[in-house]
Amino acid sequence: MQNAKRAFITGITGQDGMYLSRLLLSKGYEVYGLVRGQNNPKIPVLQAWAPEVKILTGDLLDQSSLLRALKVAQPTEVYNLGAISFVAYSWENAQLTSQVTGLGVLNMLEAVRLYAGDDVSAVRFYQASSSEMFGRVQEVPQRETTLLWPRSPYGVAKVFGHYMTINYRESYGMHASSGVLFNHESPLRGPEFVTRKISTAVARISLGLQDRLDLGNIDAQRDWGFAGDYVEAMWRMLQQDEADDYVISTGETQSVRKYLDIAFAHVGIDDWSGYVHQDPALLRPAEVDLLIGDSAKARTRLEWAPSVAFEDLVTMMVDADLAIAAKEKSGA
Ligand code: NAP
Ligand code: G4F
Rounded to an integer, what distance in angstroms lies between the CA atom of residue 332 and that of residue 325? Predict the structure, then answer.
């Protein structure tokens, strides 16, 4: 194993993988990213975003590809961010979600154990756990000790990965930590998630490129933070002497309706009721209850705190989508 700081990231083409790759590069890491598929369209996007990242191919469903990639990357830190991460999709594709988001974690943990050999604690492991695991919440706010009660196939798969990570820590002495992250967003958020769906639509509506936005439950509430802050917490977890689990959240809950208010107001539209339509097909078979995270442990031990307020997050996303929509309008 080598002394230089070397990181291996699964899910590097996703929102968090992109932010984490830049953070680690800025800290002097050599960064390797696992990319799936034979011609993944996100490769050029990743290369433009962080050209120094070394791309390796593989899939969380193919354990031999993970072991092979680890042998090439020789990492001291492994961040397992890869997953099917869209909750709504997980009801329609429950088995695949269980395999990738659940069993994929076991495949990665086992690959790290095999790769590390006798020196298993020398490779630090981060698992991307989720506030979706709290689902039908058993206390408000939720903390590391709150009983898990997932409400979606995605949440169930995340619970499997979470406990498997703890099990590898306890069984093999692996330095394996789980970050129980509440929702975090950015201009790089996938367009299927509600925040980006709204920021894209608001930008396009304000430039006359679109005239309606179909949504599901606009009274849903979430504890939304900024992705750039949350990847910093991931890194801090792996710098601790002891591996552990941490809730990462802002501690404030907001509604989709509030997000709509701020986003539309930012482009000068105070009454958005004529643009937004509720589509019953976008309602979920089960919703999580009131998700609010208590991140006191992370704030004390990791000295971590969110830096971007909700209103600033919304306007950051709308501004980024206004720039994209303006290019679309000009035909660029
Ligand atoms: P994301 O944007 O949806 O990215 C998911 C990543 O997983 C993508 O790079 C995707 O690759 C990759 N992936 C999917 N299937 C794979 C497979 N079979 N093998 C290898 N890679 C695969 O998610 P994110 O928002 O960055 O979130 C990162 C992680 O944190 C995920 O595990 C998510 O569940 C978890 N999480 C996210 C939040 C949040 O609010 N963002 C909160 C809590 C937990 P392609 O680009 O090829 O599809
Ligand atoms: O943006 P969402 O799809 O995110 P969700 O379901 O909270 O999941 C995200 O956060 C989790 C952490 O808690 C992650 F683990 C997960 O990977 C993902 O990143 O939906 C947020 C809320 C939901 O209540 C949904 O019902 O917005 C509501 N919503 C209302 N209309 C909608 C829509 N969500 C989407 N995606 N699209 C709609 O049209």
Answer: 10
Whether residue 81 sits in one domain with residue 101: yes
At a CB cut-off of 8 Å and minimum separation 6, what does 121 contact? 173, 174, 175
Question: How far is it, in rounded angstroms, from Cα 260 to Cα 273?
Answer: 10
116 and 235 within one domain: yes
Reduce the secondary structure of 231-290 to three states and give it as a string: HHHHHHHHCCCCCCEEEECCCCCEEHHHHHHHHHHHCCCCCCCCCEEECHHHCCCCCCCC
In the predicted model, what is the mean pLDDT of the chain? 97
Give me the domain span that covers residue 200: 190-223+253-291+309-330
From atom 10 of ligand 1, which residue's Cα is the shortest distance away? 11
Q: Is the CB of 222 under 6 A from ligand 2?
A: yes
Q: Whose CA is nearest to atom 8 of ligand 2?
A: 87
Q: What are phi and psi of 40, to 5 degrees?
A: -65, 120
As a whole number, mean pLDDT of residues 216-244 equals 98
In this structure, the answer to whether residues 76 and 113 fall within a common structural domain is yes
Centroid of chain to Cα 256: 19
